[in-house]
Automatic annotation (TrEMBL):
Keyword Transmembrane: yes
UniProt enzyme class: transferase
Protein name: Protoheme IX farnesyltransferase, mitochondrial
Family: Belongs to the UbiA prenyltransferase family.
Lineage of producing organism: Eukaryota, Metazoa, Ecdysozoa, Arthropoda, Hexapoda
Gene3D superfamilies: UbiA prenyltransferase (1.10.357.140)
Alphabetized GO MF terms: protoheme IX farnesyltransferase activity
Reaction catalyzed: heme b + (2E,6E)-farnesyl diphosphate + H2O = Fe(II)-heme o + diphosphate
UniProt GO BP: heme A biosynthetic process
NCBIfam families: cyoE_ctaB
Length: 412
């Protein structure tokens, strides 16, 4: 037979609530009373007390617990009014606002570089529609990756991970933005642009997102996703895709590799912890080689753009120092393979792309389709003039001959 003296319940001690009851309870144990039953009796006694609740930080009399930090956080449910007051900010976080802004910028560059008359209304609708589709894709991406984002330092503060929004909010936001964005592109721009946007949405959410945990090929697929927005801008302006759109697509496709490979290099522990199959984790040497290789492809594409009648020769000369420095940073990253060189390459990639798009716009060769057609007519005329007179064919106008035949028929 033994006795147990309970001064306060364990729940009160754990939560830091004191002053509930000053009574000391003496329990007699030994007759088969389980410990859980004693805890229940102690807890019910404390909560039935009429004394006011006093919350304070407990002070330990023993020297052992002096340096033990006390957790004073209070867990509470996020109220609905908090969502209403911060709805705009949460929507921006769902859409990955900075990434979406970069996507919209490349789409606008594709529209501005296209050799067709500039229409501000179509230009604005193309930009808005592209931004809405990109926001939907990013929201669905976050919905699928909540358990993995929680394991990464870079993504652990996203709205779904922190519980600021529920999954149903992300799906609703994606449904609204995708439907409105694709409708704007289809009815306000043209069906080709809407088809490119819908295809990119499916590619990003249904193929690229799950592939990130299966194969390093996700990086190549993600680069295709990043190369489509400038094609959407070009198609929005001209209604078709030609050699100029191909130049823009190749530049954006190759730019993704030094940009993302440099970013992922310093995030290898995070990606490894979350189970993502990235080049920087599975094959670091390949990661560095691919980054260097594609800076060379960007340089070659910029030099060839003047021969494809997208830009003039000045663009090849003006973009060469920018691209050569980009290659130099990629070479340093390849040789040193440290965090410093990867960080320099990543930061310069954020400057390189806007600067390159600006140079392409300034050195655009044709500002309208009529100028391109006039240039083609001049080239054809020059080719005809080079032929000897014996090989030239004279084509008589059809109108007067037809008129003469009609008058002859009337006379007969």
């Amino acid at each position: 037979m033994s006795y147990l003296k309970v001064l306060h319940c364990s729940l009160c001690r754990k939560t830091g609530i004191y002053g509930i009851s000053s009574k000391s309870l003496l329990f007699k144990i030994g007759n088969g009373i389980p410990i859980q039953q004693l805890a229940t009796i102690s807890t019910s006694h404390c909560w039935k007390s009429k004394l006011p609740l006093i919350s304070q930080t407990p002070t330990s009399s023993s020297g052992k617990n002096k340096n033990v930090p006390q957790d004073t956080r209070v867990w509470k449910e996020t109220p609905t009014c908090d969502i209403r007051n911060n709805l705009g900010h949460y929507c921006m976080m769902l859409s990955k606002f900075r990434l979406t802004s970069l996507v919209v910028m490349t789409s606008m560059a594709g529209y501005a570089l296209a050799p067709a008359p500039f229409n501000f209304t179509t230009f604005a609708l193309c930009a808005v529609g592209t931004g809405l589709v990109s926001s939907a894709a990013n929201s669905i991406n976050q919905y699928h990756e909540v358990p993995f984002d929680a394991q990464m330092t870079r993504t652990k503060n996203r709205v779904l991970v922190k519980g600021l929004l529920e999954p149903v909010h992300a799906i609703s936001f994606a449904a609204i933005t995708s439907a409105s964005g694709l409708s704007i592109l289809y009815f306000g721009v043209n069906p080709l642009t809407a088809a490119l946007g819908a295809g990119n949405l499916v590619l990003y959410t249904s193929v690229y997102t799950p592939m990130k945990r299966m194969s390093i090929l996700n990086t190549w697929l993600g680069s295709v996703v990043g190369a489509i927005p400038p094609l959407m801008g070009w198609a929005g302006c001209t209604g078709s895709l030609d050699a100029g759109a191909l130049v823009l697509g190749v530049v954006l496709y190759s730019w993704q590799f030094p940009h993302f490979n440099a970013l992922s290099w310093n995030l290898r522990p995070d990606y490894s912890r979350a189970g993502y199959r990235m080049m920087a984790v599975t094959d670091p040497a390949l990661c560095r080689r691919v980054a260097l290789r594609h800076t060379g492809i960007i340089t070659a594409t910029c030099l060839a753009s003047s021969y494809l009648d997208v830009t003039n020769l000045w663009f090849a000369l003006e973009s060469l120092p920018l691209n050569l420095y980009f290659m130099y940073l990629a070479w340093q990253f390849y040789k040193k393979s440290d965090s410093g060189s990867s960080r320099k390459l990543f930061k310069f990639s954020l400057i390189h792309l806007p600067a390159l798009m600006l140079l392409m716009l300034v050195n655009k060769k044709y500002w309208s389709s009529s100028e391109m057609q006039e240039h083609k007519d001049v080239l054809k005329l020059q080719d005809v003039n080079k032929l000897p007179e014996s090989k030239r064919i004279t084509v008589l106008p059809r109108g007067p001959v037809v008129a003469a035949q009609e008058t002859d028929i009337r006379q007969n």
